[in-house]
């Protein structure tokens, strides 16, 4: 089991509300985050926000396969936290993936992303130092670009 953790943050010159809305609408991720190719909402929460989604990821630089499908629990907490958590495939599935977006501010926004993953398909001898931070930075930059359009 290989562990990956990472963090990234940015100051954005956009209202926090706009940033939160972009990140909470997970079905729009394929429009702005190139790693996410498909998001299908399977269940919505009572307030209309996504609760469970099926996602397809495309990671061309991965030596362990380039296409991944996963189910993600989506938890949104206004005014500024969106948590995406991979749903295990069963009790024996120890792989995990969690992304926690934090949005704070009013006229300008502080955007933070915490990335936490464990993957059984990555051999322990493969070095992954800094990969979690790189993933978090890439996601932050993709959100920044989408908000700048």
What are the salient characteristics of this protein?
149 residues, alpha+beta, Alpha-D-Glucose-1,6-Bisphosphate, Chain A, domain 4, 7-stranded antiparallel sheet, 7 strands, 21% helix
In short:
By secondary structure, this protein is α+β, with helices and mostly antiparallel strands. Helix content is 21%, strand content 45%.
Could you explain how this protein is built, in words?
This protein is α+β, with helices and mostly antiparallel strands and 149 residues long. It has one domain: Alpha-D-Glucose-1,6-Bisphosphate, Chain A, domain 4, CATH 3.30.530. It has helices at residues 16-24, 29-32, 131-148, and strands at 2-12, 36-44, 50-58, 67-77, 81-86, 96-105, 109-119. Strands 1-7-6-5-4-3-2 form a 7-stranded antiparallel beta sheet. The termini are far apart.
